[in-house]
Design goal:
heterodimer, A: 227 residues, alpha+beta, 17% helix, globular, B: 180 residues, 14% strand
Chain lengths: 227, 180
């Protein structure tokens, strides 16, 4: 290849790359941030936990690649609610029925369907269609022993008392559009979390059962471990 | 149902399970969810931050016991093909990704290398890892080349099974069916 041809090729690649850059100062319509707030009634009064996540739509396709679907990426972590007696409730990035794309795809879809900047998920779960979101609530979990990932247990939104004891009840879950920074740092509470980026809490590289510890990995709690 | 047709159906099923699926809300309850009589027994990474999701890899394994045309205990692994090529960056990553690497065009930079004789990219590595996990759970951890596993595939998924079968000295070209 001649020098002129090489320069032309590199210049063309640069133009195509820069052509994808967003204009400075303008918000990216494909990116949204929301704050999930979980409020729990306890024997000592209400306790609240908050987490901010960012959802990005990455458009797929291309003029010669017909196999690129749009992707929705999420950044952020589980909501942490500190409760009396050292207990902790986590609202995960997955939904109660196990949808792993809940915190990104489903929440984004809720805002697109219902409009507005604030949506209440509990105690009045929203009705949806196009698409139907079968479970609009996050998965709620606790640990019998916070230092033992295999002790994870699911908590039911309509019966927190069964998991946490008398006097506990889920008061509300809301999601609100925000500009706040994405929440991070949950690994400081769960020191073993980094060991489970690619291994289930039950210790399997690829899960072998549908038991809760075998279905959960670090990614249900945070996307930020590798950052 | 014809065996080849069922394998083609399973090759498409991998696009609709797990993460980033084409059809939402299809369940994956291991050892319970079935498509026909094929029971899902394993799937690869689905959660953010895992190696599989970061590299755009997904595979799912079925127990074909009781399915006409398949042996009792036979497993089928379906590898998902290309499905996450970012439109805004596809061309620049195609040109530059091979030089500088890119974290965004997952299938291009993490999977297409198989077609160019690069056997140790992230998706190729995960494909072999998943195969070995499925073979191990069917009692062939020490004899991977004897596991009764059929690999079914579509698109990018076609390079991965070829590599997996060669890597495990289990060249079974008749058992690899490319979906139409």
């Amino acid at each position: 290849m001649t020098r002129r041809g090489l320069i032309g090729l590199l210049a063309g690649a640069a133009v195509l790359t820069l052509g994808g850059c967003k204009k400075a100062g303008q918000p990216d319509p494909n990116i949204m941030r929301y704050k999930m707030t979980v409020e729990v009634e306890t024997p000592d009064g209400p306790r609240t936990g908050v987490a901010v996540r960012e959802v990005e739509l990455k458009e797929g396709g291309g003029f010669w690649f017909g196999e690129g679907r749009s992707q929705i990426k999420v950044r952020g972590e589980a909501v942490v609610v500190d409760l009396p007696d050292g207990q902790t409730l986590f609202a995960l990035l997955a939904s109660g029925n196990g949808q792993v794309d809940y915190a990104g795809r489903d929440i984004r879809s809720l805002f697109k369907q219902l409009g507005g900047n604030r949506i209440q998920l509990w105690p009045n779960p929203p009705e949806t269609n196009r698409p139907i979101i079968r479970d609009p609530l996050p998965m709620l979990v606790t640990f019998r022993d916070i230092d033992d990932p295999t002790s994870v247990e699911k908590a039911e939104p309509d019966d927190l008392a069964a998991s946490l004891g008398n006097g506990y009840a889920l008061k509300s879950i809301t999601v609100t559009i925000t500009d706040d920074s994405v929440t991070s740092g949950i690994e400081k509470r769960l020191g073993w979390l980094r060991n489970h980026s690619n291994m289930s809490f039950a210790g399997n590289r690829f899960p072998v059962s549908s038991e809760l510890p075998d279905t959960l990995m670090a990614g249900a709690f945070t996307t930020e471990l590798s950052k | 149902m014809n065996r080849d047709l069922f394998l083609a159906i399973l090759s498409m099923d991998s696009y609709n399970r797990g993460y980033g699926e084409g059809i939402s809300n299809l369940p994956v309850v291991l050892n319970s969810t079935k498509i026909g009589n094929a029971k899902i027994v394993r799937q690869s990474d689905v959660l953010p931050g895992s190696d599989g999701v970061a590299s755009g890899f997904y595979a799912i394994a079925y127990d074909m016991t009781g399915v006409a045309g398949f042996a009792a205990g036979e497993r089928v692994i379906s590898f998902r093909g290309s499905d996450n090529i970012d439109k805004s960056e596809a061309f620049s990553n195609f040109i530059l990704g091979g030089i500088f690497g890119s974290p965004t065009a997952e299938d291009i930079t993490n999977g297409f290398g198989v077609a160019f004789g690069v056997p140790n990219g992230p998706q190729a590595t995960l494909a072999i890892e998943f195969y070995r996990a499925v073979a191990g759970s069917s009692g062939h951890a020490q004899s991977l080349n004897l596991a009764n596993i059929t690999l079914t595939l579509h698109s990018l998924g076609s390079g991965l099974p070829g590599l997996v079968s060669a890597a495990n000295d289990n060249l079974l070209p008749l058992a690899i069916r490319a979906a139409a």
